[in-house]
């Protein structure tokens, strides 16, 4: 399964974040052994525990909602935070990145779904954040792209429209704030059920869990 998915993504230059939340170390190691090095978790405690137990050459991504008071636990090692949705959060990440003497890569999470359970910024909020003086003073974070989640629905037309919307937001931010920054290049969208649609819409990074590891209970 993983080999087919990887091949498919590879030909399109899309990166795979293997979402290992709730799954045991033994099962994650199986994927590691066939070469996968990027894993995503959505809870800080689980992320920290797994990072301690797993090989050190893994890139750990935080993909779930992140509370400010938990940033310090992942700041020493996290390789990408997908879920930045406020200035307060990114300022906290900057603070702990500095304490750990590093620069932490982040994605701005945008709200693209028609559900009110999903976190994220509106385009307007994103623009305000990026043009604020306080943001420009941060030196230990680097925004490398955007992230979003489509509505949980079978309606493919709707999902496609939502992913197109995120691509549009990315293009808008790129041309306004990151024109000369090659590092601003990631569009994290697409999960087990909708990654093909996401890739068609321009995803550069898909977050796939159940398709790789089996259903979560
Ligand atoms: C769980 C999760 C995924 C993966 O979901 P699957 O449907 O299992 O592929 C992707 N992104 C986020 C933010 C998640 O929490």
Main pleated-sheet profile? 8 strands, parallel
Shape: globular
Distance between the termini: 20 Å
Strand order, main sheet: write it out: 7-6-5-4-3-2-1-8
Ligand identities: pyridoxal-5'-phosphate
Number of helices: 10
Secondary-structure-derived class? alpha/beta
Order of SSEs: HEHEHEHEHEHHEHEHEH
Low-pLDDT ranges: none
Question: How is the topology of this model organized?
Answer:
Elements (H helix, E strand, L loop, with lengths): L1 H10 L3 E5 L5 H9 L4 E4 L2 H10 L5 E4 L8 H4 L5 E5 L2 H13 L4 E7 L12 H9 L1 H4 L4 E8 L7 H22 L8 E3 L6 H6 L4 E4 L1 H4 L4
The site of pyridoxal-5'-phosphate has 13 residues, from β8 and α10.
Q: Quick recap of the structure?
A:
This protein has 217 residues and is α/β, with parallel strands linked by helices.
Structure description:
This protein has an eight-stranded parallel beta sheet. It is of the alpha/beta class and 217 residues long. It has ten helices and eight strands. The protein has helices at 2-11, 25-33, 44-53, 71-74, 87-99, 123-131, 133-136, 156-177, 195-200, 210-213; strands at residues 15-19, 38-41, 59-62, 80-84, 104-110, 141-148, 186-188, 205-208. The structure holds pyridoxal-5'-phosphate.
Properties at a glance:
217 residues; 8-stranded parallel β-sheet; 42% helix; alpha/beta; binds pyridoxal-5'-phosphate; 18% strand; 10 helices; globular
């Amino acid at each position: 399964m993983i080999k087919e998915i990887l091949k498919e993504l590879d030909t399109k230059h899309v990166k795979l974040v293997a979402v290992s939340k709730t799954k045991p170390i033994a099962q994650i190691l199986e994927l590691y052994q066939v070469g996968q090095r990027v894993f995503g978790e959505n809870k800080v405690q689980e992320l920290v525990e797994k990072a301690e137990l797993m090989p050190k050459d893994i890139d750990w991504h935080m993909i779930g909602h992140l509370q400010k008071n938990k940033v310090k636990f992942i700041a020493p090692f996290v390789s990408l935070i997908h879920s930045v949705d406020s200035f307060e959060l990114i300022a906290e990440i900057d603070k702990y990145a500095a304490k750990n003497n590093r620069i932490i890569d982040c994605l701005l999470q945008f709200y693209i779904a028609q559900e009110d359970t999903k976190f994220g910024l509106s385009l307007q909020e994103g623009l305000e954040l990026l043009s604020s003086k306080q943001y420009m003073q941060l030196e230990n974070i680097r925004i490398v792209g955007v992230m979003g989640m489509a509505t949980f629905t079978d309606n493919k037309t709707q999902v496609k429209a939502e992913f197109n919307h995120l691509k549009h937001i990315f293009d808008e931010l790129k041309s306004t704030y990151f024109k000369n920054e090659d590092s601003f290049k990631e569009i994290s969208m697409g999960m087990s059920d909708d990654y093909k649609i996401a890739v068609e819409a321009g995803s550069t990074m898909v977050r796939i869990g159940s398709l790789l590891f089996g259903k979560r209970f």
